[in-house]
């Protein structure tokens, strides 16, 4: 969005480069804070994030518009607004839930690694749909940054399960010991040992997390493509207000609708848990402050 603030020419280039360099740093810091302090679901984090962000964007628009009309109907056309709402649903409502879900499953470092695919996909979509040029210098720059993130992210992570209780440990040793394995009825029946079950669960969790991260790459890039194509004439604040605000309202509507359905005699839904759309109640004010800063 830096180019949209600056005049044309060299100043626009400098502003765009500066914004492009600062944005990943800020995103990474926020990512780490959310990964460390958030105690709820990915959906509720997305609701909180969008609600807070859209409120801040609205305040900025109201305080910086001066005497000018803050929401010019000649700029906020039905086509532009509908395209931004669609991009918000694709990239934020669905894409960011997948993104934050992947964060909880595989951690910030692995998600950031998968995120390095976004510049390549964005450049490809710009080349195909917006007639943008994909130069050798651009491709080399994206590749160098991605390789740097890859090298850092390939550092071995310990993915060890929590230590089992004493009785579980003794039972696991009994099944893992070839000399006593035949004494264990579960082992004789081909049931996986405790260690094998934990390893299978960890691999399944990693696979689901990577799938969500890749899903976010596709959805977020397409949402950004729609924003760039139809957001001309709108300021960054206007675009972010429409996108985050509409995503927030959509997720609030989903939450209210789901809670109403669980109260009605709907087969398969009545009495079901609403934990996935309930804000965490155990977080301290300090933790909420940190999440807000993130």
From TrEMBL:
Main location: membrane
InterPro entries: AA-Vitamin_Transporters (IPR050638), EamA_dom (IPR000620), EmrE-like (IPR037185)
Positions of region (Disordered): 160-192
A GO cellular-component term linked to this record: membrane
Transmembrane segments: 12-34, 46-68, 80-99
Acidic residues bias: start-end ranges: 160-169
Keywords in alphabetical order: Membrane, Transmembrane, Transmembrane helix
Bilayer topology: Multi-pass membrane protein
Domain (EamA): residue spans on this chain: 16-153
Location within or outside the cell: Membrane
PANTHER family, per database record: EAMA DOMAIN-CONTAINING PROTEIN, INNER MEMBRANE TRANSPORTER
Name of the protein in its database record: EamA domain-containing protein
């Amino acid at each position: 969005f830096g180019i949209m603030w600056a005049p044309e020419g060299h100043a626009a280039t400098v502003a765009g480069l500066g914004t492009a360099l600062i944005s990943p740093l800020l995103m990474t810091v926020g990512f780490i804070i959310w990964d460390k302090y958030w105690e709820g679901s990915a959906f509720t984090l997305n609701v909180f994030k969008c609600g807070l962000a859209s409120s801040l964007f609205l305040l900025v628009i109201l305080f910086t518009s001066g005497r000018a009309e803050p929401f010019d109907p000649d700029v906020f056309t039905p086509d532009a607004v509908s395209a931004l709402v669609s991009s918000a649903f694709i990239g934020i409502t669905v894409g960011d839930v997948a993104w934050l879900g992947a964060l909880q499953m595989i951690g910030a470092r692995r998600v950031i690694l998968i995120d390095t695919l976004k510049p390549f996909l964005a450049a490809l979509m710009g080349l195909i749909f917006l007639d943008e040029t994909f130069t050798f210098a651009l491709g080399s720059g994206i590749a160098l940054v991605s390789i740097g993130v890859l090298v850092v992210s390939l550092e071995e992570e310990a993915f060890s399960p929590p230590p089992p209780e004493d009785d579980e440990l003794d039972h696991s040793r009994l099944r893992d010991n070839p000399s006593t394995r035949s004494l264990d009825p579960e082992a004789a029946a081909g049931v996986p040992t405790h260690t094998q079950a934990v390893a299978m669960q960890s691999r399944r969790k990693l696979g689901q997390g990577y799938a969500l991260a890749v899903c976010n790459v596709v959805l977020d890039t397409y949402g950004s493509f729609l924003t760039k194509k139809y957001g001309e004439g709108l300021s960054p604040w206007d675009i972010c207000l429409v996108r985050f605000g509409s995503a927030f309202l959509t997720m609030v509507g989903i939450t209210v609708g789901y809670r109403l359905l669980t109260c009605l005699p709907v087969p398969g839904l009545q009495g079901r848990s609403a934990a996935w759309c309930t804000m965490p109640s155990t977080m301290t004010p300090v933790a909420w402050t940190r999440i807000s800063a993130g």
